[in-house]
Automatic annotation (TrEMBL), chain A:
This is Uncharacterized protein. The chain crosses the membrane at residues 21-39, 59-78, 99-126, 146-166, 178-197, 247-266. The lineage of its organism: Bacteria, Pseudomonadati, Bacteroidota, Chitinophagia, Chitinophagales. It comes from the Bacteria. Keywords: Membrane, Transmembrane, Transmembrane helix.
Automatic annotation (TrEMBL), chain B:
PANTHER family: ABC TRANSPORTER ATP-BINDING PROTEIN ALBC-RELATED. The keyword Nucleotide-binding applies. It comes from the Bacteria. Residues 2-227 form the ABC transporter domain. GO terms for molecular function: ATP binding; ATP hydrolysis activity. InterPro entries: AAA+_ATPase (IPR003593), ABC_transporter-like_ATP-bd (IPR003439), ABC_Transporter_VariousFunc (IPR051782), P-loop_NTPase (IPR027417). SMART domains: AAA. Keywords: ATP-binding, Nucleotide-binding, Transport. This is ABC transporter ATP-binding protein. It comes from Chitinophaga barathri. SUPFAM superfamilies: P-loop containing nucleoside triphosphate hydrolases.
Amino acid sequence: MNFSFHRFILLLKMQFAVNRRFYLLGIAALAGLLLVYMFFRAANGDFGFEFDAQEENYAFTMCFLTVVFGTMIFRQLGSKPQRIQALMLPVSALERMSVAFLMVFILFPIVYTLVYFLCSGLVNLVDVHVLSHPNEWYLLNGEMEIKALTILMLTLPVVLFCAVWFRRLTFVKTMVMLCVPLLVFSFFNSVLSKMVVNNAAPSAPKGVEYSYWASTPFSYLAVVVKTPNVESDPQSFNVLLPAGQQWVFTLFLCLIPFLFLYLAYLKLREQEL
Amino acid sequence: MISLQHLHFAYNKAVPILQDVNLELSPGRIYGLLGKNGVGKSSLMYNMCGLLFPSSGSCSVLGHTPSRRDPAFLQQVCLLPEDFEMPAMSIDQYIRLYAPFYPAFSSDAFEGHLQTFGIPRQQSLPALSHGQQKKVLISFTLATNARLILMDEPTNGLDVPSKRQFRKVIAGSLREDQSIVISTHQVKDLDSLIDEVLILEDHRIILQEAISSITEKLSFRQVMSLEETEAPIYSEGALKGYAVVAVNRKAEQSRMDMEMFFNAVMTEKEKILPLFNR
């Protein structure tokens, strides 16, 4: 591991200087699009731009745009002339990775949050005082943001890995890389859970039917139980794994981002022309 | 300084680019890496600076393994690529951003090279032509004072006066602890500039020889008719008679014509290479 804070700062300065126009135009375009969308919602929604909508939009767009930004963080590796210049620069892969981490995990979400709240604050003023919709201004309440940040922390390492790995169509390939494992995982999860529930069927009392409803690995399995000759709706039961044993899944989830960060570092170190 | 032992390289296994390349380069010399288009000159240089990794064999440059691309190694190696893209900023800003990565960078040398090339330092890079941008990059590369400077087709895109300026700048900037490797297929551009010739052919270095040794063993002459001279190894029709390459049996002093020599090696390998085999 070769890391110099001096070179890290030099590389960070270079990242800003080389991409200055791209970043400034990007922020301006982002603010413009957000304002157009928010004013449209405020003017055309029955209740204006509501608190819940502000909250959901913030979380969704932050996740999506951070992923988009993340896929572009190593765009200098995309073309041969730029790749030569980037790879010949006397910096280590760890320094390069640290700059990318800082930009994608910290600086972009902060900048996006500031831009979003400036826009939503302005729209909220108009919404309340001009359009007379009594909406509160959403300014982080600790619920949705934590979910959004958790999703980001889980997905961004994969995004960084893809940004190093794929030189062309990075965003499209990254989305496929993110979606395919999730779809495969959820498919096998439901198939396996149904098998578990069906296996338990012979042990059910006569006439009682068990059917699968939902499940989260290492957390719970929800089963719907239909009892014959009972007029009421079928009942559902959650079979919960004891909290003390859920750490296996938590640990597994926590390790995935570190694994992908390490893979991204290795891939960056092994970059060839 | 640079030691390549049994180096093999291929983009895919079916098409080898470099096979069993052995090369030793010393400091204080300018090497001309010559070869036809697509023979692997750039690949060899990229292996030397760690942009490509050999599939087998060893490559040691300034005591480092290039494929590791340690910053300490990259500070001492500078590559002037054939194709490049300059960022949208002024020359001054470019220097402020890139020069601190090279501890031995000399602003005075950079200024001097720019003056030789006639480029005003206050200019913005996107406002310069491709050839002018290349001159800025050549000036920067030399000013890094890197111990190994690799130049891939440096004269591509330069006009005739600029090629002369290029030779002047290169000749005046080599230090004793420094090596410059210039790869080109425009061999005439390297006339009177290089100390040693490397010829890459058939996936390997077929000739590594100092200019002084070449002119000691071969003579380069202009003759009106081929009967005037004993059977030459290689001849070309010229405006006045013939340009010939012959074995230098009488220890004549002649000025080496790089293009003639390269053509002679390419067409008469069997006759020329045995003269230099050690």
